[in-house]
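User: tokens in, sequence out, please.
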């Protein structure tokens, strides 16, 4: 059973930074892909950033140059460093892992950016 636990959300002013972490059960290198998605009220859940297999990374256009996804094998976590945050980044952020074509989700962490 794959378990994902997010942490690091909170309230920050526009222009500030937050670092999200996703702690995974088992080795993060066993997953085909890991990533972060977000869902704002009344909107669909969208991809923010992900790492596929080795070290290939994908980012949503809206966060390129501001967000960085990384893996930490020592702590078995996938992190999302978010800089220069904007009010439109406000959402619940979910960690996702793909293993043998099955997706797993964390419960989410709230990120609120005030203007």
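Assistant: Sequence out:
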């Amino acid at each position: 059973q794959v378990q994902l636990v997010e942490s690091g959300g909170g309230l920050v002013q526009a222009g500030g930074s937050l670092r999200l972490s996703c702690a995974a059960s088992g080795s993060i290198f066993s997953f085909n892909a890991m990533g972060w998605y977000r869902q704002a009220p009344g909107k669909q859940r969208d991809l923010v950033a992900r790492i596929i297999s080795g070290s290939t990374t994908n980012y949503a256009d809206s966060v390129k140059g501001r967000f960085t996804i990384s893996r930490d094998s020592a702590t078995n976590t996938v992190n999302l460093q978010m800089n220069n945050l904007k009010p439109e980044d406000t959402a619940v952020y979910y960690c996702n892992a793909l293993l043998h074509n099955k997706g797993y989700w964390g419960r989410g962490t709230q990120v609120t950016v005030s203007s």
